[in-house]
Each structure stands twice: as structure tokens, then as C-alpha cells.
């Protein structure tokens, strides 16, 4: 066993479970949403599609939908598919008013299917290595993500092996609520206490603060360290610009959890 491997084992020794967020933690979009949306529309025969107009409208309508129908519509009379279909159609209605309602529906349905495959996603650099490292040291691997039910298909397509997947839509609870982290513990094959779990994510409030308040250890990756560390609830020792930096710390530094 190498010196690096011994230190990694020591750093991870208290944990039985390591969970990950998905979007911008393990996976990111292979192209910006406005580009993906434009490509889908053009493929279906739409003309005059402007990506910048889509970009402006995406942010506005996404915030509105998340406010009015949180957790992709869970608990309302609408489901996640309706949520995304409404979002896409409203974005195009606002930005490209010449498109017919029938065409808007076709574009929305196409995008819903596209985002359920590996076509719209790419792995974050060294995400595979981090998952393999945790697995090699005997940890259970889970996903805790504010996501809809397509996530299992996406992770399968992207060949990211996990022991379980917790999505906010399926359990009806969103991060940063403690309940979603508690639910993840209940899915472990053997008993895991909160202090024996580590969550890795990229969103300070949802991932880091949520996990810490649930009694877990937590790490932030793929973030701007200077911006993130301005929050008094964030321990700078737990913040890393990318997985390479985090893995290097595991191999060379005795971590303080």
C-alpha cells in the first residue's frame, strides 16, 4: 500500500457512506441549455432561433417555475413532465413568438427525452476517479440530488455506479432539508450514523450547509473558493476548486472534518 493510499484510508476512515450531488458536481451539461434548446428546435424544422434570446428567457422562467411549483411540481396537481414541458414552452413563447403551439409541444417533448440520456451530459473532470477512490476504500456510494425521476437513467447512461439514488422529486423533500439526508441513511445496506456520512456537492446552502446541519461531514467542489468562503458557515478547509485538488488533499494532508 502506497503512502498516499494509507493517508486516503485514514482521511476517509470515519465514513461508511459517501454521497454526491449530480449537476455541476459529477456531471455538467455538455452544452449550455440555450444551445441545446436551439439545436432541438432546429432539428424539428424551426427557423430563426436565437440562442441569446433563449438564454435570457431561460433564467427568468426557471426562477418563476421553481418559485410557483417547487420541486418540479411535486405535491401539486402537476407532475415533473408537465413542469419541464411548461418551462420549455414558456421560454420559446417569450423568445420566439412565431412558433406554433403544436411545434412548441414537439420541442418540449424532444428536450425532455434528450435530457434523460447521456446526449446532454458530460462528466466533470476526475469525477470517475473520486467515485472509484471512495469505492476502493470500502464506502457505500449514494446520490442525493434535487432532481426529477430521470436521474437513474442519466447515471446509467453515463456509467456512474451507485448503491442508491435519492432524488428530491421521488421522496418529496428537497435539499437542504435534513429529512432528505436522513432518508439517504435509511437506504444504506448497513447502519450508518450521520457522523459516518460524507456529502460532496457544489452548492453552499443546499449541499454543504444542508449536510452539516444534518450531522454529516461535507465538502464543496467545483466552486469559486474566494466567493464561497465568504460565508461564515463554510469552513475553508472543506472547499476545493475541483476534484483534482480534493483528491490531492486526501493524499497529502490529514483532513480536519
Automatic annotation (TrEMBL):
Pfam families: Hydrolase
SUPFAM superfamilies attached to this UniProt entry: HAD-like
InterPro entries (alphabetical): HAD-like_hydrolase_domain, HAD-like_sf, HAD-SF_hydro_IA, HAD-SF_hydro_IA_REG-2-like, HAD-SF_hydro_IA_REG-2-like_cap, HAD_sf
Name of the protein in question: Reg-2-like protein
Species this protein is from: Aedes albopictus
Amino acid at each position: 500500500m502506497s503512502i498516499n493510499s494509507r493517508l486516503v484510508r485514514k482521511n476517509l476512515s470515519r465514513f461508511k457512506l459517501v454521497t454526491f450531488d449530480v449537476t455541476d458536481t459529477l456531471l455538467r451539461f455538455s452544452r449550455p441549455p440555450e444551445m441545446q434548446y436551439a439545436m432541438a428546435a432546429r432539428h424539428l424544422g424551426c427557423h430563426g432561433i436565437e440562442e441569446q434570446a433563449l438564454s435570457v428567457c431561460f433564467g427568468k422562467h426557471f426562477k418563476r417555475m421553481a418559485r410557483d411549483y417547487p420541486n418540479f411540481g411535486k405535491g401539486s396537481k402537476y407532475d415533473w413532465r408537465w413542469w419541464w414541458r411548461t418551462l420549455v414552452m414558456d421560454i420559446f413563447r417569450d423568445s420566439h413568438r412565431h412558433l406554433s403551439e403544436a411545434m412548441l409541444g414537439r420541442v418540449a417533448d424532444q428536450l425532455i427525452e434528450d435530457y434523460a440520456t447521456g446526449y446532454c451530459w458530460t462528466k466533470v473532470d476526475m469525477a470517475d476517479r473520486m467515485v472509484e477512490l471512495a469505492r476502493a476504500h470500502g464506502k457505500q456510494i449514494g446520490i442525493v440530488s434535487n432532481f426529477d425521476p430521470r436521474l437513474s437513467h442519466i447515471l446509467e447512461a453515463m456509467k456512474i455506479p451507485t448503491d442508491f439514488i435519492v432524488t428530491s422529486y421521488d421522496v418529496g423533500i428537497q435539499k437542504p432539508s435534513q429529512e432528505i439526508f436522513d432518508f439517504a441513511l435509511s437506504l444504506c445496506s448497513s447502519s450508518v450514523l450521520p457522523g459516518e456520512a460524507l456529502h460532496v456537492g457544489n452548492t453552499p446552502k443546499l449541499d454543504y450547509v444542508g449536510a452539516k446541519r444534518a450531522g454529516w461531514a461535507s465538502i464543496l467542489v467545483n466552486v469559486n473558493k474566494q466567493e464561497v468562503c465568504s460565508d461564515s458557515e463554510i469552513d475553508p478547509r472543506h472547499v476545493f476548486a475541483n476534484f483534482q485538488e480534493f483528491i490531492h488533499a486526501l493524499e497529502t494532508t490529514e483532513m480536519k472534518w
